[in-house]
Design a protein that fits this description.
The complex is a heterodimer of chains A (290) and B (314). Chain A is mostly helical and 290 residues long. Chain A folds into two domains: 75 residues, no CATH class; 174 residues, Hypothetical protein af1432 (Orthogonal Bundle), CATH 1.10.3210.10. Chain A has 15 helices and no strands. In chain A, helix 6 crosses helix 13 and helix 6 runs antiparallel to helix 15. The longest helix of chain A has 31 residues. Chain B has 314 residues and is α/β, with parallel strands linked by helices. Chain B folds into two domains: 122 residues, Response regulator (Rossmann fold); 178 residues, Alpha-Beta Plaits (2-Layer Sandwich). Chain B contains ten helices and twelve strands. Chain B has a five-stranded parallel beta sheet, sandwiched between helices. A five-stranded mixed beta sheet of chain B has the order 7-8-6-11-12, sandwiched between helices. The chains are: A mainly alpha (290), B alpha/beta (314). Chains A and B meet through helix 5 of A and helix 7 and helix 8 of B.
């Protein structure tokens, strides 16, 4: 194991919390201060942020809540944790001290993948599409970790992508000795996230490694690619990676399916665009953050 | 209310310092200075709270605390230990006192500690050990208070039906977890919406109670049922869930079907003047529980009658 890899693993073991985007926390704080705000409204907003979502799921899956099955959706978690816990979580959420345009585009990319994953899961009649949506939202959690915990290495990856014209994933492997999938896996493991989320997070670039949740993993893999193809947000590089043949076989999607799914997805992205624009404007109103 | 008896076993100097403030409190205070003689009295006619000074006789005081805490009938008796600062470090597992204070403490401090000890004792004695929710004594008091205040509230009795087959199938540990889940849903919905205006209690086993404003009771029941339905699949193994019911063999070896757990909520509106006593509320609840339980799946039933409880006997 090289030194960088060892250092990253060590840091992950002690990682307590990840920062969130300031505009999201701002909006949530406003919502929570509003007496008429309801739990579903708050859930809907939390589900738009990969960091807050992972925090809520981490909390509900801690040893304190002895569930026979781990909880994998925000709506279930909020019912169990209650309003007061959520309020505390939002109030104590740390935010990015300096925000870069990359942060917003990665966040947009995750939102897009979440939407696409949900639509695909519904189309393929998986039992719980909401869980697959969550998996899509969280799939690049490892990139958030690199960005916030190892800013220097992150800058080197970004530079390498630009100079050598390679995928972000390959630049990670070259510079870190491991990629965001592996980092996400380590974190999900440590935070007791359910396997149905862990596998798509860990293996959305290597779906043959998925063990129990092959279909979910293949969906997130596919969702990642269509979101990139639509040019919605950015996963760190401008290229669309090839679709693994195995994913295609596993999902058994037909041309007919795609013809119907793509417009639904584009409509959803159009709606989301309003929300992301609002976040960008919020962000520009607070210039000290950008 | 009866005045509470507090026995304070300390040396004369401390008594002189603390007595003036405690004399004016609402407690019945007895000071003692000789640990040997006090010990027997404490065991034979225990007070409602004990203050013991360690330096009077360390061995005896420790033995006394252990004896009291190991006695099932007296283990709830709050014990405060008075310490010298230099003796602060000790193994609190082997000296099971409830709280401590230093010999330098002033009269106000000991009074506050006593009040806090009583408040804490009340919380923990009545609370259900599984869910932490208030138990019967507190539930009855809460209902009576609402009757007396003539507030328009609803008292809702929540049953987890078909709990037993679930418990038999998955074992008591998972049974405990599903009861905790119900407790959390009720607290989060009722207390989350109404704070101190609401109330949630655990009667015991699969029976719960909550109180909320009458005009919102339908919304609250719907939300509770929705939350319960959303979380239930996490408690049922996929094999059973896909079948839709539990299947067990009875004593004759015949296969029997059992439903999954479900909630039934029986609501008694407290209209001003309808009830005088909490006993009347639970009697009406018993009647309408049957109605709620009669329905399949999760359900709630609201008693719409408005006449005073006793009209039929007049």
């Amino acid at each position: 194991m090289n030194d960088t890899k060892r250092k990253i693993k060590k840091r992950l073991r002690n990682l307590q919390s990840l920062p969130t985007l300031p505009p999201i926390v701002g909006k949530l704080t406003k919502l929570i201060g509003d007496e008429n705000a309801t739990a579903p409204q708050i859930a809907e907003l939390i589900e738009k942020d990969q960091v807050l979502t992972s925090k809520v799921l981490r909390m509900v899956n801690s040893a304190f809540y002895g569930f026979p099955r781990r909880i994998s959706t925000v709506s279930n978690a909020i019912v169990l944790l209650g309003f007061n816990v959520i309020r505390t979580l939002v109030i104590t959420a740390s935010i990015f001290e300096t925000m870069q345009s990359n942060d917003l585009t990665l966040w947009e990319h995750s939102l897009g993948v979440a939407a696409a994953s949900g639509i695909l899961a519904q189309r393929l009649e998986l039992q719980n599409p909401e869980e697959v949506t969550t998996a899509g939202l969280l799939h690049d959690l490892g990139k958030v970790v690199i960005r916030t915990e190892f800013p220097d290495l992150y800058q080197r990856i970004v530079a390498s992508v630009r100079e050598k014209k390679i995928y972000f994933l390959d630049a990670e492997r070259e510079i870190l000795g491991l990629d965001h999938g592996e980092i996400g896996r380590l974190l999900a493991n440590q935070w007791n996230l359910p396997e149905r989320l862990l596998e798509p997070i860990a293996y959305h670039h290597q779906i043959d490694k998925a063990h129990k949740f092959k279909k979910e993993t293949a969906i997130v893999h596919f969702a990642d690619i269509v979101t990139r193809a639509e040019g919605y947000g950015s996963g760190g590089d401008p290229w669309v990676p090839p679709l693994t043949e195995k994913a295609w076989k596993l999902l058994k999607l037909t041309a007919e399916d795609l013809k119907e799914i793509i417009p639904v997805f584009e409509d959803r992205l159009f709606e989301l665009r309003f929300f992301t624009l609002e976040m960008q404007n919020e962000n520009q109103k607070n210039p000290h953050l950008s | 209310m009866r005045t509470k008896k507090i026995l304070i076993l300390v040396e004369k100097d401390l008594q002189k310092r603390w007595a003036p403030i405690l004399k004016n409190s609402s407690y019945h205070i007895i000071f003692k200075n000789d640990p040997q003689r006090a010990a027997e009295e404490i065991l034979s006619s225990p007070p409602e709270l004990l203050v013991l000074q360690e330096s009077l006789n360390q061995v005896l005081i420790w033995e006394l605390i252990k004896a009291l805490k190991n006695n099932l009938n007296l283990s709830f008796l709050p014990i405060l230990m008075v310490l010298k600062k230099e003796n602060l470090n000790k193994d609190w597992f082997s000296v099971p006192a409830d709280d401590f204070l230093f010999e330098e403490a002033c009269g106000e401090e000991i009074l506050s500690r006593i009040q806090l000890a009583f408040a804490r004792a009340q919380r923990s004695v009545d609370n259900n050990p599984l869910t932490g929710l208030p138990g019967n004594t507190t539930i009855l008091r809460a209902i009576q208070e609402k009757i007396n205040a003539e507030e328009e509230v609803a008292v809702a009795y929540v049953d987890l039906d078909h709990f037993k087959p679930f418990n038999d199938r998955y074992g008591f540990a998972r049974g405990d977890e599903i009861l905790r889940m119900v407790a959390r849903i009720l607290s989060n919905v009722v207390l989350g919406r109404y704070g101190a205006q609401g109330f949630v209690g655990h009667i015991g086993g699969d029976d719960f109670v909550f109180i909320c404003p009458l005009k919102e009771i339908e919304k609250v029941c719907q939300e509770i049922i929705k939350d319960f339905a959303a979380l239930l699949p996490n408690f049922i193994d996929p094999k059973d869930w896909n079948r839709g019911y539990f299947e067990e063999k009875d004593r004759q070896g015949k296969k029997q079907r059992f439903s999954f757990p479900s909630l039934s909520i029986a609501v008694v509106p407290l209209l001003p003047g309808r009830f005088k006593h909490y006993g009347e509320v639970s009697a009406v609840a018993a009647q309408i529980k049957k109605m709620a339980k009669g329905k399949e799946g999760n359900s709630f039933f609201i008693d719409r009658r408005r006449q005073p409880y006793e009209t039929k006997n007049r």
